[in-house]
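Weekly structure sync - notes
Attendees: PM, LS, DV (DV joined late)
Agenda: review two folding runs queued last week.

Item 1: First target. Sequence and structure tokens pasted below for the record.
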Amino acid sequence: MTTTPRPSLPPSKEAAAARAGHRGVLFSMCLALVLVVASVSALNLALPDLAVDLSATNASLTWIADAYTVALAALVLPLGAIGDRIGRRHVLVAGTVVFGAASLAASFSDTTAHLIVWRIVMGVGAAMIMPGTLSTITAAFPAEQRAKGVAVWSGFAAAGAIIGMLAAGALLEQFSWRSIFVASAITALVAGAAAAALAPNTKDPHPHRPDVIGATCTAVAIGCLVFAIVEGNEQGWTEPAVIAALAVTIVGFAAYAFFGLRNDQPLLDPHLFGIPGFRAGAVTVLVQFMAVFGFFFVGLQYLQLILGYSPLKAAVALVPVAVVVLPTSHVTPHLVTRLGMKAVMVAGLTLLSSGLFAISRIHADSGYLPFLGGLVLCGLGIGLTGAAGTAAITGSLGRGQQGVASAMNDTTREVGSAIGIALMGSVYGSHYRDALPASIDQLPPQAAHSVRDSAAAGLQVAQHAGAQGPALAQAVKDAFISGLSASLVVVAVIVLAAAIGCLFRAPHQAPNAGGPLPRSA
């Protein structure tokens, strides 16, 4: 691969960016980013309604939430490469069309299978949109303003989840879960129009040839990994389908590394992981998003099912995360300059792990304040790790490789989100079922089946159980808390392990910020 940076924004495109203005570029790209990120989190508010309306089990709810993220994670690299070749704005605008059409179709779903399929198509559209957001900013902004642009982008990448949940909560106060998809379709139309009007069509003037093998290997490996996590907890880790999925995952990633090391123009050069700053940034971003979106999946159900919050109130209860994340992301570049990249990433991951562990200690009668304390810690950690991790990835590569940097940043975010939802959803589901008392078997078969399927269905059964209702509701809530605590502890340990890894392996600063990409490190 080449060792010198290439201009990713020709003079004519520099003029286009100047006419649009950096604020216009930033606005249009952040709007498109929020559309993608909000769609990961917004539907979490509707999970209790989906469990009842579509008779969705815990496993089905996990797939409804994760199908979108898996498709996005699996395809963001190859579709980002296509954007580098034909123009990032062109692919982004086309992605908003796919996304909007799939969102509208999803609003008419009447089974979990139909909804999962349309969520996958939405993920394809999102994979067309997301790579162009960061790479357009880094290509269009001058070097002295790029760090600020990346920091704003990173802040909206984290806060976009809260924005999506607030919008979904407001819609669910008046309408059904279907309104979330209608609103997403409308937002996609607006985002596409803004990108077409305000963003330059940046691209790599010397694009690499397509890496079909690399794209196939990574897509298959990511999909099989999530399948194994979900179904392993649901069916058992010794089931042939789960073992086969894990085997394909290992073979897929091994094949990616094998062929990538022998390809002079790979989709994502495995040599990049030899760059300490790049590697540390990728790990930091991955575990951060694994924790964040896995937490949203189970945490929102706690607010609605255990505390009895309405969808909007539950969304508002998570606003403190955004209130903390945005200013923290803004000051993170200054902290990195003064304290070093390693110190900021280790501190951020430690705070995030501490917040998750604090929330895992709550019980059915804890109320909101202990939950809020953990949220504040998580928010501080997210703000530090998101901005520092993204800056480590982009700063480790030259300007001509910002498409690669953006694609890697997007991939780690979405792979982390997909794994987090699958892991926490699966751990929660298995511990929830195991914690239900044996007395559940004394219920009518259909009622007992509903209780085991999901906590939302179990609480609905308790409402119609007469004198047994209060005891059944308490049993369901206690089982839910057991699942919630177990899933949070698992992820908190993983985040803490990443912090320890960064402490010993991450460089003080990204070693190659803004310079040419080294052959290997």
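Item 2: Second target, run right after the first with the same settings.
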Amino acid sequence: MCGIAGTVSFTRGAGDHHVLGQPISCTVHRSEPGSRRSWSARHARITATGVTAVDLVDGLHQSLTVDQAAIGTTVLAGTGTLFNAAELRRQLSARGHSFDGAGSAEVVLRAYQQWGAACAERLRGMFALAIWDAKREQLILVRDRFGIEPLYYTDTGDGFAFDSTPNGLFAGGLVRPVVDQDGLRELFGFTPTPGMSVFKGVREVLPGEIVTYGRDGLARRRYWTISARLHTDDPETTTARVRQILQDSVRRQVAPGVPLCTMLSGGLDSSAISALASHGMPGTPLHTFSLEYTHHLKHFRPDELHDSLDSPYVAQMVAFLGSEHDELRLDASDLLDPAQHLSVVRAMGQPVVGLDMYVAFQRLAQRIGDTTAPVLAGDGADELFGGYIWFQDPWYVKTATFPWLGAFHRMEMVSGLVDRTLMKELDVPEYISVRYEEALREVPLTGEEDATERRMRELTYLNLTRYLRIVLDRRDRLGHVGMVQARVPFVDHELVDYVYSVPWAQKNSGGQEKYLLRAAVRELLPGSILQRKKSPFPTTQDPVYRLGVRARLQAIVESGSPVVDLLDPARVRSVLTDPSFGLSTGVNRMSIEMALQLHHWIADCGVTLDV
């Protein structure tokens, strides 16, 4: 885990760098103390921070890499991990390139010198890159195909700036953390628009995008997008191919003989990754981690999304794998800690939906981070193979919006406490509708799909390009709080390229959720795990937590927090006085959690609302 940052300005000389003199801040929680390195010249400044890595898979975290060849200076700063560095090194050596060290950062630098910005198409991994080409006086930003590693940029008025997080841009004083009405629509809509942030004037480099900035201004182009093609493989061939790609993806992301960690929930996805890692690296120590709420051990109640407790299935997998295991147990006091709430908001850069889950994940990341080993996770499988309830329940499938929002805005689960006049002005449902239609126009199709196949392709694309963004951002931002080196083998472009085009009838054969994935890993898992129904990351059922967030809301209101001006007084009174939590007015626990986070965002993080 690491961060990169930089600025470019063609209007300031070497002795008058108003922009370049600012202390660009790769966010502190993305790096180790003393790891910062910077390079600067007349028009550009690049900064990189890093952490210590314990495995041998080629990371881009080492430092800044500068090459001062006769053709001109080239500077590279990168975050993440490159999974095909060895292959690229052989190709480049065959073309006459020499290497001073063993790091993958130099491989990327030589690849750029050989192929230009098009080298991005040859990289396989999770990465965000910044390259300054002094001869062309051009900055090139590159992000991996799924945006696993973050990268933001902004116009500074007299130049251009980028950073791994918006917080870094704000810490440098280049731009202010201002949120306008579109930013609030993004926040309350719970469907991130690719390329947008919630902050005015701050954009993300799109997944699979190259952004260049030079004297001619800004240019953008995609080097990879999801594509559709006719699938001709029979079911047996398809299953074998999925298994092969998954094995290859896991193999690329681990190093033989080095301790390896996985996040294990006892579900299909994390169990499959754990088994693939264990089988693919015999003799490599495997350390598994899981999470459970103490309240659930005696009082768990099945609901629409969670029909079983994780712990028994985790225990089965631990015994099956023979892994060293560490279970983190959390109670309501852990989830109610205001310091943890503030930490989540700072790490994510904004309030989130499901605060208790984010706090729990942050605590788990901190526990895993103590090992300093890389950790594999099962993220991405549900989006690709159709594991969520909205792929299975006909009501959700037919809903004419982003499927995860089917019942969401009826209850105003995020914005229930926000001022009603403001919510009317924002008209979030209309904003979502426009974004939904935009997304549908992007969906790759072959033209041969019937109505059912077309709809399932749409749902898969929406999940891979929107919902997965939420999942990956959570893992990246909170993982960095715990210094966790997280890797996600399901989020692999070769796997997505293949599985996206597999007909729904093969993916969901016999109506079984994620049938294709279950078939691909059938020989690796116990029958109980193979048959377990999807159970998402758990949210606590503890009534002590429910009452605790209400008590925190009351304390914040009584403190005179600036967030009070953003809230609806009648609804706040209803929550604080009505034992039913004001459900009749569309308010629930998530609405209260959002209000708590808005308080931290405005009062503690210095965010200004321009609404």
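Discussion on item 2: Residues 451-481 form the longest helix (31 residues).
Action: LS to circulate a short write-up before next sync.
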